[in-house]
Write a structure and sequence with these properties.
This protein has 250 residues and is mainly alpha-helical. It contains eleven helices and two strands.
């Protein structure tokens, strides 16, 4: 969603926003939560029905986001990092965008940062939160905060992860950082430090928050509701906490 906004694709690629509650039927197209749209193409009730439009025998896990081809009625891709790459260049002839989120001279460094952040941080919060035993939890927890420490040090005197401009590396990390204090710190027991307690990461996140494409595509009420309400195996009472106060709004 951030890349779509930055690359001028809002009028070229339409969106349908699922309901934040992911229950027995996985992602749903209900409209009874602020900001949801329902299925704007086929008026389906469930996202799995979209997967089955592509392949009636589909048995894959139903995930978001989904990049859908309206002409062929098929799924192009359902992996966010790959969709960002597609958006970065595939529609330039239609959008006229000159922005490059993965510039050739910076690709090696971007790939290195992505490797540093994806497994221990982006995926690490889930490995921590979904751990089935103490040893697995402690291993993921340690790797998560070791990586956050590295990134915090890396950002000393820097506004972006690579070079002097926003790249896909920033987009891939920022979504996890935005959820961290609101969800992962409590819900996934990632409670060594909040992002707001890191000097460089908190400054970095505050600066990125000023970018309208990031701020306007971040729906805190959606992701809080999704995690706390959907994961009843972690939070059986399904109580969605009211806090914390976001340091980004101060």
């Amino acid at each position: 969603m951030i890349a779509r906004e930055l690359l001028g694709l809002k009028d070229i690629i339409s969106t349908s926003v699922v309901h934040p509650d992911m229950l027995e039927n996985s992602w749903e197209f209900r409209r009874d939560f602020s900001g949801t749209t329902g299925d704007t193409l086929y008026d389906k009730k469930f996202l799995y029905e979209i997967y089955q439009l592509d392949n009636p025998k589909a048995t894959t896990k139903v995930t978001v986001p989904v990049l859908w081809d309206k002409k062929t009625q098929s799924i192009v891709n359902n992996e966010s990092s790959e969709i960002i790459r597609i958006f970065n260049s595939a529609f330039n002839s239609l959008s006229g965008s000159k922005l490059d989120l993965y510039p050739e001279p910076m690709r090696k460094k971007i790939d290195e940062i992505n490797e540093l952040t994806y497994e221990p941080i982006n995926n690490g919060v889930y490995k921590t939160g979904f751990a089935k035993n103490q040893d697995s939890y402690e291993k993921a927890f340690s790797e998560l905060f070791a990586a956050l420490d590295k990134v915090d040090t890396h950002l000393e005197s820097k506004n972006f992860l690579v070079g002097e401009t926003l790249t896909e590396a920033d987009i891939r990390l920022v979504t996890t950082l935005l959820r961290f204090d609101h969800v992962y710190y409590v819900h996934f027991k990632c409670n060594l430090k909040k992002i707001s307690e890191y000097s460089n990461l908190s400054r970095y996140l505050q600066e990125l928050w000023k970018i309208s494409a990031i701020r306007e595509t971040t729906f805190i009420d959606h992701f809080k509701r999704h995690y706390y309400y959907s994961h009843d195996f972690i939070n059986p009472s399904r109580i969605v906490p009211l806090g914390p106060s976001s340091f980004l709004t101060k």
